[in-house]
Structures are given as structure tokens and as C-alpha cells.
Amino acid sequence: MTFKKPRNLLEGYSKLIGSHSEDSSDDLMVTCPKCKKSLASGDLLGSINVCMYCGHHFRMNARQRLNLICDRDTFAEADGTMVSSNLIGFPEYDGKLENARLDSKEPDAVICGACKINGIAAGIFVMEPYFMMGSMGVVVGEKLTRLFERAAAERLPVVGFTVSGGARMQEGILSLMQMAKVSGAVKRHSDAGLFFVCVLTDPTTGGVTASFAMEADVIAAEPFAHIGFAGARVIEQTMRKKLPEGFQRAEFLLEKGFIDDIVERKKQKKYLAQLLKMHVR
Amino acid sequence: MAAAYEKVALARAKGRATSVDYISNIFENFLEMHGDRRYGDDKSVIAGIGYLIEMPVTVIGIEKGHSVKERGFRNSGSAHPEGYRKALRQMKLAEKFSRPVVCFVDTPGAYCGIGAEERGQGQAIAENLTEMMTLKTPVISIVIGEGGSGGALGLAVADEVWMLENSVYSVISPEGCASILWKDSSRSKEASECLKLTAQDLFKLKVIEKIFPESDKVYAHLKQELYAAFTKSRQLDPQSLTAARYERFRKIGAPE
After folding, report:
1. A21-to-A129, A148, B78 alpha-carbon distances in Å
2. How close, in Å, is residue A120 to chain B by CA atoms?
């Protein structure tokens, strides 16, 4: 028997923000971390998880994003049954995986497939924040690699949405190797003259930032998304000083020249469609 | 229980040979090349060209330094983005002249600092991963001490990856792992065991090709093995070479 941590109220809350079951209690109130206003979770779902008062972008689960971006009934999922296993016998990992599947209702931390965006065919991947914070293990690496390989073979562009704490430490060195593996597939896709656009969402960090998130031809980000290589706390400990305001936020990366633009959620579909159209070959 | 942590301690031990020792004992007429032509010269990464017997090769090494003073100068082997960009610049030059590349990896991890983030630590490593994957010249990376996560991988996308018998290579430091898992960095011994980070573990997981015993013969041994490997891989056309490198990583963690 694997020990499962008890569910708590906070998890229920986070799940509701990005819930599949939109029927669950509409009257639950959520406080916006930016403007501190109280929002009904039902209203928030209706406003694509963006605060109607200040525009703060809440997290969003992968299926919700696919609905937002793909043309109706065009998304065809690939490798949707691939599941992670405890490859190096890491303690408590089996239980964590089971919980993550329950929390997210997804088999792993990325959904891949093909779709149309305003009529233009593309490969697409969306990472899932409610599955171990989108961490990249062997399954995530394999699904992404297959996606880029398929897109290269079918001569399709790729649209991606990242959200990730980085490599999944419970799979040890094998998860680190996925960074190289996916990067290889991204490079082959690119060398075939094909287009890759990536939207970085909150948070995109660690091994994902240090691989495919930063390898796209065009890199966009959601407003105020936390994007970086090292964790803010680790940097604070290393430097022994407080970090400047807005450090590692999307606006900071734009200023430093590491992303192409910041694009609000409600404008993303149009933005992506326009870019895809500009890069049709 | 402590076997893995003993390896971690040995890999980090004071007095352990670092990149400068390997460079001076294996190669002749080494010429160091500084700077990334973008921002600065990262002292954590030594790059240059030397002779492996009669074969000119590009040599890159992450250097921790020996004395306290040297460690300060070398930032204890934690490279900034400039270090990865300097390495890539030298690899591109190697490619232009079909010269093999050797990378010595010894780092606790890429530097975690404000400047490093401002100048794109993630982007610098990411670029090395894609560029090294398709570099049209042979590359061998050798972990000689600590292989710290993305900071190590940024110089380890190679045709073959070798390790010294008491070196380690991990997705996260044992301390970092323990503090995330158990909110207690002092449980790093347990974490070392869980992470499967020793050279012997990695060999079993088919992530590395060779393990080198640590003795006074190690330099001669490496010299001989590098020379033999490059003599062979230089015969390959660039396409077969990069295809094999892609396959090497492609199969890691692929379902049966």
C-alpha cells in the first residue's frame, strides 16, 4: 500500500480554479492575489481565469487552454494513454503520481496532439499545472519528442504552452536527459524549416526554461508570469540579498530581451493564428 | 546506505583533480581562448585548443579551482551564461575546422544569481543543448567530479559521456532534493541514495558509456581512450555522427 497524503481544503480550491467539473459549487469565493478583490470562482471560469477587475492571470488547466486556442472539435490527442512509472524506485513517487492523476484528471503533465487554429493546422502541446506542477519526466519528454518528430514528418508548425517547475526529480538523471532529448527534436523540426511558437505561462522554470521553452522561434509570455532558470529562494540564499521588484516576471524578461512579447490570454488565439499565417510555407 | 553520499563527498573533496589538471596532463600546447564575444569572460569555464597526441582538439572544462583564492576566482565552478556561450563559440570554431571537442564537467550547477538570470542562464543552456545536438564534429564529455543538473548537461550533449569512478551526475543536488522533499537539507544522505546519481548507477541506467578508475594512470588512460574514440568518429560523415548522437539521447526513457 502506498501512503497517500490527506486531501486538504487548499487543494480543492486550486482544483476548482482550473476544474473540469464546472458544476461544482459556483459560490466558492477566491481572492485575487493582485487586487485582493473577492471573485466568485464560477465567474472566474467564465472570464478564462483572468480577474475581471485587474486582469491578473490565474493558472489554467491544459484542457481549458486547448478549448480556448483550438478551433472547435479540431483537437486530436496523441499518446494520451502514456503513463509514468517509478523508474528508479524513488520513495513515495507512486503515491504522488496517483494523487497527481486524481488532482488533474490527466495521465501526465503534458497534453500533445494536432489541431487547427483559425483554420491553420498545427501540432500543439499544453503543459498541465495540476499534475506535479507540470514537471518533466520521461513521459513528458517522450510525448514532446514524438510531437516534434511527427510535426517534422507532417511539415506542421508547433504551438506550445509551458508551465513547469522543471525536471521531475523523482525520475533522477532520466528526467534531466529529457531536456537534451526534446531539444534534439526541436532542433530537427527547426532545421526542417518549420515554425515553433511557445507561450510561457506562470510558472516556467528550471529544466523547461533551460530547454524547449527558450528554443522557440517566437517566445511569448502571459502577463506577470514567473519565468526563470533558478528558483527565487535559491537565488536569494546564494546572493544573500533581497531580489528586485518584478524579478523573473514576464515584464522583466521582455525588458532583458529574452521574450518577443507579452500577450494577454484573451488575445492569444488571434496572436497565434496571425503568426502561423505569417509562417505558412 | 551511505554509499551514494560517500561518492558525493569524494566528488566534491578538496584536493580532487579539476579540469586544469586534466587539461595539462592530457593535452600539449594548450592555448586558452577567452570570452563569449557578447558580454564577458566567465572564469568558471576554461576553453581552448590543444593537441591530443598529434590531433588538434578543442578542450572545454568547467573549473572549480583548488585553493580558496582560486575557488573565488572560478566561482567554484558555477558558470554564468557567458561560460556556456564561450563554450559554444569554441565548439562552433571546432566544427568549422572539423576538430573534435572534449568537455570536462565539474560543477555544482549553473550559477543561481541575479546577473545570471538577467543575462539568460536558461536561454544559454538551452542553446547549447540544441547546438551541441547537431554539431558536425565529434564530441565527448567527461564528468570528472560533480555533474550538477542543467549546468552540467549544457556541456554534455555528446556522442559519448564518460565518468570518473567517484564522480556523480544528478538532476538536482542531494541537498536541494532533501529540502524540497522533506523540507530538511540535512537529509541529503538519504536523498543521494534515492537519486541514483553515482557513475555506477548511471552506467546501469544506460546514460553513460564508460567509467574510468581513479588512479595515477587516469590521464594516460583517458588520453588513449579519447584518441582511439576520435580516430574512429572522425571517419564518420557529419550526418551519421549527429544521427547517432540524436539516437543516443532519443532512446533514454523511451518506452519499450
Report:
1. 17, 31, 46
2. 27
